[in-house]
Amino acid sequence: MRTPSKLNGRLLAALLATLACGQAAAAAPAPAARRVLDPPLAGAAMTVVDGRLWVASRGGGLIGFERGARSMRFDLGQGLPSAVVQELASLPDGRLAAGTQAGLVLLDPRNGASKAIAPPGMDGHDMTADLVLASSRGSSVLFQLTAREPDGAEGQAGASLWHWDGERVQAWDPGLGGALVATAGTVDRGDGCFHVAGMRVDGAAQQPWYARQCGAQLRSWRLAEGAPAATVGIAALARAPDGRSTALVMVTQPSADPASRRHVLMTLDEDGRLHPHCSQASFREPVTGLLHSGPELIVARAGAGVHALGCGEPRPLSDDARVSNATALIRDARLGLLVATDAAVWQLGADGAPLAMTPAPGREIPIDALPMEAKASGDLVLLSSPGTGPLELARTPSGWRVVRQWRAGVDLPSAVYGPAAYAGPDQVLAVQLSQGLLRLRQGQAQAVPLDAGALPLDVAVTPGGIWIAAGSTPFGGAAGLHYLGNDGLARFVALPDRQAQPSGRLLAWPDGRIWAGTRMGIIEADAKGAARRISADRVEALFRNSTRNIIGAVGASVQRWDGERMAPVLFAIEPKPARALGHPVDLVIDDAGRWVILFSGGQVILLDAQLRHVATLDERAGIAPSSRRLLYVPGSREVLIGSAREGVFSLSWP
């Protein structure tokens, strides 16, 4: 009998009361996940090293392009702890400093090596690295770390600034007091100086600031005098070619309405005095790039394209719609002006014509697509993206490809989309979370009539009709299960009380019954309206392998149906995971009886058919930290893993 080292009974209970004694399975190579297609490029930052264009992709890792073709990639399991790369800078020796949602990573394209850069004692902490600036002289990097909330949302309360001198990491303090949040920065390529700006938070007060560090010399200014009223941030900055001034884009928001936000162009002189830019320019659109070109500024704006700006009106550098949604902007000595968008990177010629520097966008998977259901043949898979809507993949000899897609705001109403299910050879049911249910056919979307006030969370199809899990409303609507029979019969099965809110996952049986996971356990209902309680523990996900008739559930614990009740699944995890697992959020069971369990911390536990722990997989094995849902592909050994921010991955277990 073996138990995990340094785990006492209290910690075992905290790990869902399932990590009890067990016998470890024989050691075997752990499988690794691989990416299923590419998400949209969504270029967040760029740099050029030795003629290779590197693009930081929010969800697709770090990609290198040469002559318009992808030549190298750093991704999950390939040097990166997160595929969400939002900042990028290059050192003089050719190495790359990448700011990811799991920290700062130093990468060497020459040999593929990677190294995490973290302050002492902060290794392995859930921190996002942004505002990454690399000096053009030596190995010196300035970066910011921000603590992330457990659900993955970023916050600024825990932001901190750090400097890596090539050997060690130390706190970077410009001596302004208060809590500092850096929101913009640049490096003067001539002298290697860091230029950083942001907001200083002191209680309820916020004040813009600016700092300049050249070698050991550091100067900083509080930008109170001359700053626009209601300044809430600094979006971008650029140094003038003569080094005597800095252009700042200061963000103002005079009211709680986001529509009141403006991006105001200002000039900062060498003594830290602010003045309005000679153009008096301000923009409603977010400024995503700013640099000097001779006497003019070049300004990139999301949704408005790229403009040159002197002391008059902005002058468009291109009228091509492909560069209208600019996400990043750089100028390279050899390649000239490069504009990143949400789909590609473009080189702007003198006439404004864009030349693609990356492959033309094809049929891609949204970064937040979650797998929902597979056809019995395993050749078609239905997914749903909260922001985009449902889509369908087909298996081909060369892998998966997108064959159908319904897009929110184009083919469908704008909404947040939840689960989806097949409802016939050519029909799909799509849940608009807490709004309604749509029946989709190719080129057609039809609302499914529901009771007034019904807030759908999940949908499942049985031979006799459709089941819908609905949550309670703030005005007294009861949580429960709606049944819409093929014969026109409609029923509502109320859950025992308001604490029995559906978790949002339904399990349909061939005889028309339904099992619903709730906060108070599993509720079984049938088309006649009869209901009974199957278990008492909170359940987030249910799964049944129809080939072997094995049923499992996860939530407050890991459980298995023994024919009469849900019994706990006990197993030991050895060795101890590198970081906390969190709680189980999903599971699948393959045709060999093996269990794949996804935990909220973005890790996957593999159990063999005897329910013994085989392996713990994390980002080193290609498991996205933001993983949310699993889908077993029938007739295969493949599990699809959907994530909130990093795309869809496939895990094949031999």
Give a structural overview.
Residues 1-26 form the signal peptide. InterPro entries: WD40/YVTN_repeat-like_dom_sf. Keywords: Signal. With 654 residues, the protein is mainly beta. 1% of the residues lie in helices and 51% in strands. The strands form 14 sheets. Strands 2-3-4-5-6 form a five-stranded mixed sheet, with no helix packed on it. Strands 19, 20, 21, 22 and 23 form a five-stranded antiparallel sheet that branches. It is globular and about 80 Å long. It starts with 8 loop residues before the first helix and ends with a strand.
List the helices and strands and how they pair.
Elements: H1 9-14, E1 33-35, E2 43-49, E3 52-57, E4 61-66, E5 69-76, E6 79-80, E7 85-90, E8 96-100, E9 103-108, E10 113-117, E11 127-134, E12 141-147, E13 160-164, E14 169-171, E15 179-187, E16 194-202, E17 205-214, E18 217-222, E19 231-239, E20 245-252, E21 262-269, E22 274-276, E23 282-283, E24 287-293, E25 296-301, E26 305-309, E27 315-316, E28 326-332, E29 336-341, E30 345-348, E31 354-356, E32 370-374, E33 380-385, E34 389-396, E35 399-405, E36 417-422, E37 428-432, E38 436-441, E39 444-447, E40 455-462, E41 465-471, E42 480-485, E43 490-494, E44 502-508, E45 514-518, E46 521-525, E47 531-533, E48 539-545, E49 550-555, E50 558-561, E51 566-568, E52 584-589, E53 595-599, E54 603-607, E55 613-617, E56 627-632, E57 638-643, E58 648-652
Parallel strand pairs: 5-6
Antiparallel strand pairs: 1-58, 2-3, 3-4, 4-5, 7-8, 8-9, 9-10, 11-12, 12-13, 13-14, 15-16, 16-17, 17-18, 19-20, 20-21, 21-22, 21-23, 24-25, 25-26, 26-27, 28-29, 29-30, 30-31, 32-33, 33-34, 34-35, 36-37, 37-38, 38-39, 40-41, 41-42, 42-43, 44-45, 45-46, 46-47, 48-49, 49-50, 50-51, 52-53, 53-54, ...
